[in-house]
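subagent[fold] <- orchestrator: predict structure for attached chain, return tokens only, no commentary.
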Amino acid sequence: MKSLKKNLRIIVVILCVMFICLGVYFAYALTTYGTRWLNSPYNVRLQNQKNAVIAGTIYDRNHTVLASSNEEGERSYASSKSVRRALSHTVGDNYGLTSSGAENFFANYLLGMESSVFERIYKSFTGEKQKGTNIVLTVDAQLCTAVYEALGSYRGGAVVMNYKTGEILATVSQPGFDPENMGSYLPESQGGTGDAEDNGSLVNRVTAGQYTPGSVFKIITAAAAIRYLPGIDTRTFDCDGPLVFDEKSEKYLENIHISPEEDKANREADQSESS
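subagent[fold] -> orchestrator:
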């Protein structure tokens, strides 16, 4: 009997420790990932909250209105179509089709979820519709529009930032979309028309595009050269073609030069042999 009681105590202690660990992990996960879960486009409560709250206004750094709501809670975006398309991925949309925009990322502020419980209770009794908090972004609408127009028909992304403060002055993804016409992207089962062309315009190529480093890596090379090569600002480099290395020793063969055409032919020959 004593051994049974002892075993029961051990089991109770183990269960209590496991319960405490579970509670601590839940509190940690809620603190760390709570905002991410809240702002998920799959969160049904988030969409319900949009229908019950007058969402806050989104401004650019010069207080140009990028998105606002009227007294009925209807969401509208910048009056200029070019501004709407240039900032489409930055601002986002009201349906949550683009999860990287401010509409979704700052939903807890725009939808008034940061307000106190007492304020919510008071407004629920008075029947007053709750209003969200306004936010100001660091981007410049005019600069974003200029970048968008400069990209023209090219697909890609562009970012302009203040390297001293880290402020994002412009972030543009091409092609963009018009947040005032998101119904064309929704299927008919959700009240849309579903007739928008699937050209990848809902993908933010700045944050979600996958590209090889390419010329971007030249910035790292240039920074290393400025730091470690004396007199780099006055030196001149002549590109004489590809550098040649010995295949076995991997040493640089300084006195051997080949043309770009020969290098290309050698690479194609290597690829054909490996395949």
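orchestrator: received. Logging for downstream: The chain is about 40% helix and 10% strand. The chain has a mean pLDDT of 81.
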